[in-house]
Every structure is written in C-alpha cells, then in structure tokens.
Write a structure and sequence with these properties.
Length: 456
C-alpha cells in the first residue's frame, strides 16, 4: 500500500492553519469526500448527505465552514451538528442514514491543533485504502468534475441533535439500573461533551458536579479532562462522590476515578468490563477481547484466567474496530480509555463507557473493589522521544541492537515496543516487565538512543 501523505492513525491532524490543517485542505477534502460517496454510494440520493460535527477549538469555526463549502461546491448536502462528541457524530451519521460523517477535532491535543476524522454510512472510520483514494482526490482535484447551477449543494444546522445521542447512549445502561442517589464528578475537558454529557447523567438521576464545562476556544484539554484527572480526583474525595468521570476533548475516551479518588487504569476497566459481559452472558468462554500493542500484559493474563482470548492490533480504535468486525468480538479498547462496546457503538465512547462503569458498580455492589484488585497490571513505562525524521526503525542498527539487548534482559515476563506517533513528531517507547526500576531504566536507555539517532 502506498504511503499516506495526509492521513495518520486517526484522520488528518496537525497545527491549525498550517499545512495540512488549512481551510484550503478542508475544502478540498470536503469535495473529495462528496465525490467519493457520489461515485461509491448506492445511488438512492442525488446529493450525498454529510454530517459535520466539531469540538470547541477556536479553529473549528474555520475548518467546519471550509469543509462544508467543499461539500456544497461538489454537490453534497451538509448537516452541521455543532459541538458533539465523536461517538455522537458517528451515531447521528448512521441514524440519519447519511452517506458519511465528519468530526473536526484533535481529540486530546492542545487547542492550537486540529484534525478531521471521517466515518462511513455505518458510523465506522474509513479503512486505509479509502483514505488513500481521498488523498489522491485532494492532491489531484482535476479528477473531480466541477459542479454548477442546480448541481451545487446546501447546508443547514441540525436541531435536537443532543437528544438523539443521549437516548442512544442511555440505552447502553441496563434498564433495571439508574443513577438515582449517585453523586458524580464529571469533567468534560471544555470539549465536545460540555453540554451533552451533563444532560445525560442528570437525566439518569445523578447529582452531577461539573468541571471543564466553560469552553472559550482555547482551554480544551487544558489542565482538565482525561489527560489531567487531578482536579476531578480532588473533587471526588472532597465531595465524597461515588465516581469521577473525565472525558477528553472529543468525548471518545474516558478516565474513571474510584470513590477513593484513585484513577482506574484503562486496561483495568477493560478487564472489569470483560468480566461483566461474561457474567451477564454477553461473552462466553473462548471469546476474544481486542486490545492494542500498548495493552498491558497483566490484562492479557487476567483475561486468560477468565477463559477469554486476547488479540492485539495496531494503536488506534479504528484498527480495534476493524478486527472486532472481522472476528465478531464485542469488546475492545486501549489503555488510554478508548473503549468500544460493539453492540452499542462503532467507536470509543467516553459517556457510554462511564455508564457501563455505573452498571458494573450496581451489578457487583461491594464485590466490585475485590474484582478491580484482581486485575494486576505489570509495571509499564511509556516515554516519548522527539524525532525529526520517521525512517523505518528496523533500518537503524543502534536501535535494533539495544532492542535485542532489552528483550534478552526482560525475558518472557516483559515486552518492549518502539513506534512512531501517527499524529506528532514523536517516537513512543514502551517497556513492560515485572520490576519498575528495571523497566524505567531500560526505557530511558531506549529514549536516549532513539533521540540521538532520529532527533537530529
């Protein structure tokens, strides 16, 4: 497969108003997406319908309208949702039987970044080969016909979009459970979920104390949300809350805080949800749970003890979902808090995962803490090395030599992984083993070598 020039592991992402995250590329991509679904659709709709959602970044105004302009210029119809979590955009795309959905967001990145994620009619992220076709159209615009006169498209805003997504997400919570009497701290990261998430938990009967619900275009993910749960953890203990929930900027991941103010690791959550689905009969012995190469060995060991299999994909929830579709798996996720319940969603969904956490609390009662304690994760250290070039790692002899040395030292009770970030000029170095001191030392050694070889 050809090397992609625009798309990374999760759509196109970069510094807003600097190539490729410019209004010109957004307009060209709007044209390309429309043309692609004009020529690959079922033909029932003359003008492809494209749903466009966004988070709260200042640059979303620019990119939202630029993308919509591209769709209209190529003869498509646009429905703008305004700020809505990524899973909400995926759901609305499917429920409205649109041809495609687009989310303008850089997820957990700082406000001056932005990105564009694209979904097909079923709400699934596009496979690599389709992204390559779109790139070719963006970079070779003459491949698309110019539309004029009545062939041009139009745009409008969707009313009641929050209600659609809330009803959908709430359906994931078992009907015999609600949130009456629960006190919840909810941090929305000043992002896409700042309106809809508090409404959802309030409707279910919880007493909701909110953080990160005052976006100003520049404070998304700033010292709040899933990457910075410290403030929410402090509030959980201060107000004696039952649970803390921290979303990221686009609402597709969650960090959960226990009643004692301690963060529950994403892999521990996946282990808990696997046991919940197993005990409820949705999973059976021998079924597969899907994670990534970054998932902790301790999770794999715990799932094996439950009688479940574990499969690792590349990093990115779309790769997890692709394998889930192929294998029939119904649960998958990443340590970062992207958790997919395939019965209810086509992507990671922070609110939905939080509701499943409430369901686990109700289902297990006091036994829940014992279950969480059984999921023992191995010490794992991940550090970043800034790189100025991304050449194939297997061609850099000093890095490969050290990787072999680390593998020997860790033995069969550890793992090491070096990979490039798909969205930033970084190499991620992960080392996992039985002793933290050893893991931390080996990770530092690898970061030093990677920085020396690729950072100049």
């Amino acid at each position: 497969m050809s090397q992609r020039k625009l798309f990374g592991t999760d759509g196109i992402r970069g510094k807003a108003n600097i190539y490729p995250m410019t209004s010109e590329i957004a307009t060209a991509l709007g044209r390309a997406v429309t043309h692609y679904f004009q020529t690959h659709g079922d033909g029932k709709r003359k003008k492809p319908l494209i749903i466009v959602g966004k988070d709260t970044r200042l640059s979303c105004y620019m990119l939202e309208h630029a993308f919509a302009a591209g769709v209209c210029s190529q003869g498509g119809s646009v429905i703008l949702t305004g700020p809505l979590p990524t899973p909400g955009v995926a759901f609305v795309t499917k429920s409205m039987r649109a041809d495609a959905g687009v989310m303008i967001s850089a997820s957990h990145n700082s406000f001056d970044d932005n990105g564009i994620k694209i979904f097909d009619a079923s709400g699934h992220k596009l496979p690599d080969e389709v992204e390559l076709e779109l790139e070719n159209l963006v970079l070779t615009p003459d491949l698309m016909p110019v539309m004029v006169g009545p062939k041009l498209g139009n745009a409008k805003r969707l009313k009641e979009v929050f209600g659609r997504y809330i009803v959908h997400a709430k359906s994931a919570l078992r009907g015999d459970f609600d949130l009456d009497g629960m006190r919840i701290v909810l941090d929305c990261a000043n992002g896409a979920g700042y309106k809809v998430a508090p409404m959802m938990f309030d409707e279910l009967g919880a007493e909701v104390m909110t953080l990160g619900v005052n976006p100003n275009g520049e404070n998304i993910n700033l010292n709040c949300g899933s990457l910075h749960p410290e403030g929410a953890a402090e509030s959980v203990t201060k107000f004696r809350a039952d649970l803390g929930i921290c979303l990221d900027g686009d609402g597709d991941r969650v960090t959960v805080i226990n009643h004692d103010g301690k963060v529950i690791h994403g892999d521990v959550l996946i282990g808990l949800f696997a046991k919940l689905l197993l005990d409820q009969g949705s999973l059976k012995k021998g079924d597969t749970v899907v994670g990534t190469v970054m998932s902790n060995l301790g999770l794999e060991v715990y799932l094996r003890e439950l009688g479940l299999k574990f499969h690792r994909t590349k990093v990115g929830d779309r790769y997890i979902m692709e394998h889930m579709k192929e294998s029939g798996a119904i649960l998958g996720g990443e340590p970062s808090g992207h958790i997919i319940f395939k019965e209810f969603a086509t992507t990671g969904d922070g609110c939905l995962a939080a509701l499943k956490m409430v369901e686990a609390m109700k289902f297990y009662g006091e036994e829940l803490q014992n279950i969480l304690a059984q999921i023992q994760l191995y010490p794992q250290v991940t550090k970043n090395a800034i790189v100025n070039k991304k050449v194939p790692l297997d061609t850099i002899e000093p890095i490969q030599a050290l990787l072999k040395k680390v593998d020997v030292e860790l033995g069969d009770k550890g793992r090491v992984l070096v990979r490039y970030s798909g969205t930033e000029p970084l190499a991620r170095v992960m080392v996992e083993g039985e002793r933290f001191e050893q893991v931390d030392r080996l990770c530092d050694e690898l970061v030093d070598v990677v920085s020396r070889e690729l950072g100049q």
